[in-house]
Specification:
- The chain has 311 residues and is an alpha/beta fold.
- Strand 3 (105-110), helix 4 (115-122) and strand 4 form a beta-alpha-beta unit.
- The protein is globular, with a radius of gyration of 19 Å.
- It contains nine helices and nine strands.
- It is 36% helix and 14% strand.
- The structure holds N-carbamoyl-L-aspartate.
- N-carbamoyl-L-aspartate binds next to helix 2 and helix 6.
């Protein structure tokens, strides 16, 4: 079940079948057990992970780092492009080739679409995409699904709402493609047309799951089992004046959620800015900090899988 991952790249969630996603869940369950038992293991002792982060990150970078260290491996690389020779004009390909020579696995985040794919073409070692451009964030989608699976027991049969910046949030893009492997009802809540998902994405998932588009959360809230919220992706707007027009167009607090099911699971990839009130944090279904913790577990699983440490 795990062989298919050995030595492979994780570039797009499109490369994952339902069976693959379930194998990641299995591996993550093993890692969770390991983590709860001893927090530190030697599974990846002697292995080196290289971080190539060309964009800001808190959770993704640090959770990859923690994941590698909890498994006994070491971490090198850079968290800001200005700390590397990219600042001097070195190309992405040269940077990748050099770090590929130093490490056993590469984790890359980059503002450009296709950057992780390009890195994977040039690297001999596995490349894991930690977010590229506006469309791909496969490890986030896997940890989002794993959180749903752990919190709800299963994914099939759920009614999942996804709200916020559906156009530029790569977490949403990858999550929707991942969800399309399951029997779910998807309700997209796009507060203003400018935040609507790209038509090509809608078409792609519509062939696989039932999808409805709403303007207001209240139209669908009472039916939802899961609500996934994202911030407006300010830095990804091609035109800053468009950002000014859409900022603040949606906001969720306890009051907004009055009509929700008691066990509504509330997820957010974080960081939150002004779209999700802290008064939601104390609801039992507010799982975004647990979700961030599962990020470590799922990334432990992915590293162990691609490095061939799981039988
Ligand atoms: C996301 C990202 O970088 O796309 N962050 C993350 O990995 N949790 C989401 C975001 O920045 O809004």
């Amino acid at each position: 079940m795990f062989e298919r991952f050995v030595g492979s790249d994780i570039v797009s969630i499109r490369d994952f079948t339902r069976e693959d996603i379930e194998a990641v869940f299995k591996a993550s369950d093993l890692m969770l057990e390991l983590y709860d038992r001893e927090k530190y293991s030697r599974l990846l002792e002697g292995k080196i992970l290289a971080l190539l982060f060309f964009e800001p990150s808190t959770r993704t970078r640090i959770s990859f780092e923690v994941a590698m260290k909890r498994l006994g491996g070491a971490v090198i690389g850079f968290a800001e492009p200005y700390m590397s020779s990219v600042q001097k004009g070195e190309t992405l390909i040269d940077t990748v080739r050099v770090l590929d020579g130093y490490a056993d696995v590469l984790v890359i985040r980059h503002p450009n679409e296709g950057a992780a794919r390009l890195a994977a073409e040039y690297a001999q070692h596995p490349v894991i995409n930690a977010g590229s451009g506006r469309q791909e964030h496969p490890t986030q989608a896997l940890l989002d699904l794993y959180t749903i699976y752990k919190e709800k027991g299963a994914i099939d049969g759920l009614c999942v709402g996804v709200m916020g910046d559906l156009r530029y949030a790569r977490t949403v893009n990858s999550l929707l493609l991942a969800l399309a492997n399951f029997k779910v009802d998807v309700h997209l809540v796009s507060p203003v047309p400018f935040l609507d998902p790209r038509p090509a994405l809608l078409e792609e998932i519509r062939n696989k799951v039932a999808v409805q588009l709403h303007r207001r959360l209240q139209e669908v809230l009472p039916q939802l089992d899961v609500l996934y919220i994202t911030r407006v992706q300010k830095e990804r707007f091609p035109d800053p004046s468009e950002y000014e027009r859409v900022r603040g167009t949606y906001f969720v607090n306890r009051d907004t959620l009055k009509e929700a099911k008691d066990d509504l699971l509330i997820l957010h990839p974080l960081p939150r800015v002004d779209e999700l009130s802290i008064d939601v944090d104390t609801l039992p279904g507010a799982a975004y900090f647990r979700q961030a913790h599962y990020g470590v577990i799922v990334r432990m699983a992915l590293l162990a899988l691609v490095l061939g440490a799981l039988q």
